[in-house]
Specification:
The chain is an alpha/beta fold and 301 residues long. It has a domain of 175 residues: Rossmann fold (3-Layer(aba) Sandwich). The chain is 43% helix and 17% strand. The protein is built from 13 helices and twelve strands. It has a seven-stranded parallel sheet with strand order 3-2-1-4-5-6-10, sandwiched between helices. A three-stranded mixed sheet has the order 7-9-11. A two-stranded parallel ribbon has the order 8-12. Helix 6 links the parallel strand 5 and strand 6. Helix 8 crosses helix 12. The longest helix is centred in the middle third of the chain and has 16 residues. The protein is globular. The relative contact order is 0.13. Bound molecules: NADP nicotinamide-adenine-dinucleotide phosphate. NADP nicotinamide-adenine-dinucleotide phosphate binds next to helix 1 and strand 7.
Length: 301
């Protein structure tokens, strides 16, 4: 534990898409003590080599063993970035973190949720909103981040190992949806974790540009210099593939619902865009074209 006067900032999801970049950024910040939460000593090893402090916290443990499975690891922490995975366990995990954080005197939690209108009836988006309300109810300072579609979702469709290189498969027909680069989400989170007071009690939607999948394939074609084409598939096909791959059925049925309803046009906020990234970080967000440029080696085939 650090003994200087800087706040101790704990990052959940430190090995994931957003968390990795958030760790990189806060590791360069001189005004906070950075601590990565990881679920095993093996996951801690690469961070330790970079001299990043780690704490072992498996968010599945409280359901089995109670709050004592995570609360001691939160002692001394002042601020938390709370991110959970693509699983209905997100509910029990987030409640446990918030409750334990309250018990040890954490002052601020930045919660990574998902973009939806407050009256959404899509279940996993509602789960994120219930976590937000529970966090507000706890009395801990809070900031809610609500990103829409991650640009990184598009990287699964390219890359050397992909047999269908150049084919972008998606399940939303011709619908227009808005996108954000996970690196920008991490930059926003870093700025808030460094100065939480000015973002306390705020909810930030994060989405910078709206594109159909056809438009995405045209941008990739131009930037990469190789042909990309959009191949629309049915949401039923998505559900079959992810369930066979072992994903959580409860969460994935919600994603299936998003695809179905987005395709039909009943998610009216699907293409909303905001200037929140610039407002919070002072920098222009990454466009989809810039994202494709940055990931050209992964997309090329
Ligand atoms: N994809 C989208 O378009 C989109 C849009 C809006 C919001 N979201 C939200 O984004 C979140 C996921 O973010 P992401 O894509 O950055 O995640 P990710 O890359 O899949 O990473 C998940 C992180 O959570 C950690 N984790 C999972 N289960 C854990 C457990 N039981 N104990 C401790 N750590 C655990 C993982 O650690 P390990 O390395 O040990 O597995 C990993 O670091 C979800 O809440 C989702 O609803 C996604």
């Amino acid at each position: 534990m650090n003994t200087n006067n800087k706040p101790n900032v704990l990052i959940f999801g430190a090995t994931g898409k957003i968390g990795r970049v958030l760790i990189e950024r806060l590791n360069q910040a001189s005004d906070v003590n950075l601590i990565a939460a990881v679920r095993s000593p093996e996951k801690a090893a690469p961070l330790k080599t970079q001299k990043i402090e780690t704490r072992i916290i498996d968010l599945d443990k409280p359901e089995q063993y109670g709050l004592s499975a995570i609360q001691p690891a939160l002692v001394g922490i002042n601020r938390i970035f709370l991110l959970t995975g693509y699983n209905v366990s997100m509910l029990a995990q987030s409640k446990a973190v918030i409750y334990a954080a309250k018990n040890v005197g954490v002052s601020h939690i930045v919660h990574l949720g998902a973009y939806a209108k407050d009256d959404t009836t899509v279940a996993h988006l509602a789960w994120h909103q219930m976590i937000e309300i529970y966090l507000q109810h706890s009395g801990i300072g809070y900031t809610h981040l609500r990103p829409n579609w991650f640009m990184q979702n598009l990287l699964g469709y390219g890359g050397r190992d992909n047999q269908n290189a150049g084919v972008i498969t998606q399940y939303i027909g011709d619908a227009l949806v808005s996108w954000i680069d996970c690196d920008d989400i991490a930059k926003v989170a870093a700025a808030i974790l460094r100065s939480p007071e000015q973002h306390n009690g705020k909810t930030y939607p994060l989405a910078v540009e709206a594109h159909t999948m056809q438009a995405v394939s045209e941008i990739f074609t131009e930037v990469v210099g190789q042909p990309f084409r959009y191949e629309p598939h049915s949401p039923e096909e998505f559900l079959k593939i992810v369930l066979e791959a072992g994903a959580d059925p409860a969460y994935m049925k919600c994603v299936y619902n998003v695809f179905t309803r987005t395709r039909e046009g009943s998610v009216t906020e699907a293409a909303d865009v905001f200037n929140t990234v610039e407002q919070i970080t002072g920098h222009r967000p990454t466009s989809l074209r810039e994202f494709a440029q940055k990931h050209k080696p992964e997309l090329a085939y």
